[in-house]
Amino acid sequence: MKAMVLAAGLGTRLRPLTNDRPKALVEVGGQTMLERTLIRLRAFGIHDVIVNVHHFADMAVAYLRANDSFGMHIEVSREDELLNTGGGLKKAAWFFMDEPGEPFLLHNVDILSSFDLAAMLATHRENEAIATLAVQHRSTSRLLLFDEEMHLRGRQGATENIEANGLPLAFAGIHIISPHLLGMMHEDGAFSIIDTYLRLASSGEKIIGYRDDTAYWCDLGKPASIVSAETALKRHPALFS
Fold first, then answer.
1. DSSP SS3 for 77
2. Contact indicator for 153, 201 with CB cutoff of 8 Å
């Protein structure tokens, strides 16, 4: 199984920490976000990863080289202009073409979570979905809507929803994707992959949610969140091993 780490963002909410480094190299509990994400993927059995970079791109590349890619095979996808989650994946699609039947994992660099990746992958395979999204019940301004079978049905507040009264759940920034979805990404330039998911769901494709309300999850995009995550790491280190 392969993976992509989305690490190209500017990290504006983390300033001044990102004034002289990419967001991916900001430390959380003595390890950079990028190192934490890669080690988590490696522990899951993933050794082939592509990382997209933009802000202080050369610094991120040098960091990977200095650390021998953490014992993994890592490719880099440079973005001269930010392409957002969908555009970034579309640019890196070539990396997944040699395993046409094997799902891959897409993971934001700026999250810390204890979602069970093995259970999520099993759910993806059992449902024969083209994408499975880690979700949970929590407060956020960007909620996705799911039906009783956890099929994606829309986005809260949107007018194009398949069903108006779906179950609102928050997306956790972790996806498992079947590679044939890559050929269905008709959007160009910079775009959110959520827009692709919503379009495909509206045409009958199976985009599902993997829900775990007990999993720890933290968006590391703000300095206060990093403090909160470091507290969780100290109190429950086994949760993230």
1. strand
2. yes
8 Å CB contact between 41 and 49: yes
Place of tokens 């973005």: 79
* Residue 26 amino acid letter: V
Q: How many angstroms separate the CA atoms of 233 and 235, rounded? A: 6
pLDDT digits (tens, 9 = 90+) for 51-91: 999 999 999 999 999 999 999 999 999 999 999 999 999 99
From 80, 128, 124, 85, select the one nearest 106 (Cα to Cα): 85
Distances (CA, A) of 61 to 11, 16, 22, 51: 17, 21, 11, 9
Burial of 71 (0-12, 13-18, 19+ CB in 10 A): exposed
From the list 6, 11, 86, 107, the residue with the least C-alpha distance to 55 is: 11
Question: At 17, which amino acid appears?
Answer: L
* Of 43, 7, 51, the residue nearest 26 (C-alpha): 7
Q: How many of the other CB atoms lie within 10 Å of CB of 223?
A: 14
pLDDT tens string 148-206: 999 999 988 665 666 667 899 999 999 999 999 999 999 999 999 999 999 999 999 99
Q: Are 10 and 18 in contact (CB under 8 A)?
A: yes
